[in-house]
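Researcher: Next sequence.
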Amino acid sequence: MRDGAQLAARVWLPEEAEQTPMPAIMEYIPYRKRDITRGRDATNHAYLAGHGYVCIRVDMRGSGDSDGVLTDEYTQQEQEDGVDAIAWLAEQPWCDGSVGMMGISWGGFNSLQVAAKQPPALKAIISICSSDDLYADNMHYMGGCLLGDNLSEATVMFAFNTLPPDPLIVGNRWRDMWFDRMENSGLWLEQWIENQRRNAYWSTSSVNEHYSAIQCPVYAIGGWADGFTNTVLRLMQHLEVPRKGLIGPWGHKYPHQGIPGPAIGFLQEALRWWDYWLKGKDNGIMDEPMLRAWEQDSIPPDTSYAERPGRWIGESGWPSDNIRMRRYGLGPYTIVMGEGHGGPHQRDEHESSLVLQSPLSVGLFAGKWCSYAATPDLPGDQREEDGGSLIFSSRQLAEPLDIFGMPVVELELSSDKPQAMLAVRLSDVAPDGKATRVTYGLLNLSHRDSDANPEPLVPHRRYRVRIPMNGIAQRFPAGHQLRLSVSTSYWPLAWLPPEPAQVEIYPGSCTLTLPERSPGEEDARLPEFNEPEEAPPLDITTFEASEHNWLLHRDLATKESTLEVINDQGHFLIEDTGTEVRRSTREWYTTVHDDFTSARGETYTERSFKRDDWNVEIYTRSILSCDESNFFIHAQLDAYENDYRVFSKNWEKVIPRDHM
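Model: Next structure:
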């Protein structure tokens, strides 16, 4: 790097590259190339290298076997290092000077961020499951509400940031590097909760602040079961460079491993992209529609389905001329679907209202903001959720209804408290009454006008608020109903307000706007995706299988409810390095009765590496709780070498609530 620090990398080098230089593809993430992502890297990068590309997987500064300490996500230091790594790649004798960047999640984020730095050798990127807006569309906040995934993601990084480098790579300094990380990487949850409103902390690395800075072609990819799909739609609308978008039914996975399916031959699709932009092969990929998406068919509600029925649809541009935003009025408990009901009637100060104050059980079947589809983390049957919600239902549809885009709800309301939140959900209701959530949105009512400058509500004053829901492509069949559900809690997907609030909604002044789509001629001409392919899997020996589950515990005597999340990735041996790896994470989200200040999230992680005379174990514990005025963080870190505890540290933090 420009300051002399060294980053560790693994390179897949086609044999002929030393005689005939080739383009390079870089993935740049903090998730340990030598062990944790070794299996995924082996199937992805070896495949691309086998088709004529140098592939390089770089450990970010402070992670894996690289120098330094990682102190936060998406820093300017990280982006500068990415620029330096690309420059280094382009100068190597086996690289022809053209570089692409590719990654999922963190690697998708920094592909966009590094592209905005305009390194000369970077010719194109593929960004998967990423965000252009770190505040409004990430794992931290949504609609100004604090997400439960904030704690979950902080836990992931708390565990990663305390892991040591491998002594076989860095030598005898591994222990000093390890202690430096444990002492100085910091408690990321603290800074994420300190910044509860949109400010420079979030905007500095959000590419939506300067789309025009991205000057290379972009392929943006996501999945409807993931949390990041809105980014694909925004990038298609706002980027000025050649671009493509792809949204499948998947969770937070590479599309060739996509669950729910159908998975696609993503690596072949990636090769078409790289061949076009890095090798100049006119293979027709840019003649196809700009945006492709999986339009989902109706299914019964379930939390773990393997396939999502539907079809691929295509749009030559975005926003699309095939889509019209159609407004429907809301009546008492109804969505008025007939013609001539395209908006709210003139306000009547004396019109009747519907009163809503939801129990804290609403949200226990919401699933995860960012689903990996490896656990029952998709939303379940919404009937139990709807029992604590205000619902508006349409008549049975006389003919199918297709939507593609972001539905929007506008509500006229008042609250008896200065702080409140709303969750709105659009569901598909089958003739048997089962309700499947299609999409949803959140709004912290203090953020109704601005995420940067929130203001409390004046109790009992009427306000008009707008709540966008996540983008979706969905077909509602004839005979089904649409249901709009509104609740004042959505725990633990979103953190609770400081106290219960009773919200009055004036339905005659409210609307639901749907992005209704007419099937386009391009749909029938879309080329088929190939079946998934990848390189041979990593050779491992499994000692203990992985376990993934969500468990709901309800104590009817104490009225305590706890959602337990089990993410145990087992115990296995990586044969080619001789390293045993053990990984396990558990999370608990608890409330008691209707006490909003009883909200509590706790996480616990175990990590260990063992090989010959190298034996290290790391345990972390994080607790996030609150009262009406503050958030409280308690965190613990304990590290062991050869069964002796060699490091221990506790954190205690109090962070004032800021309209949250």
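Model: The chain has twelve helices and 32 strands. The longest helix spans residues 76-91.
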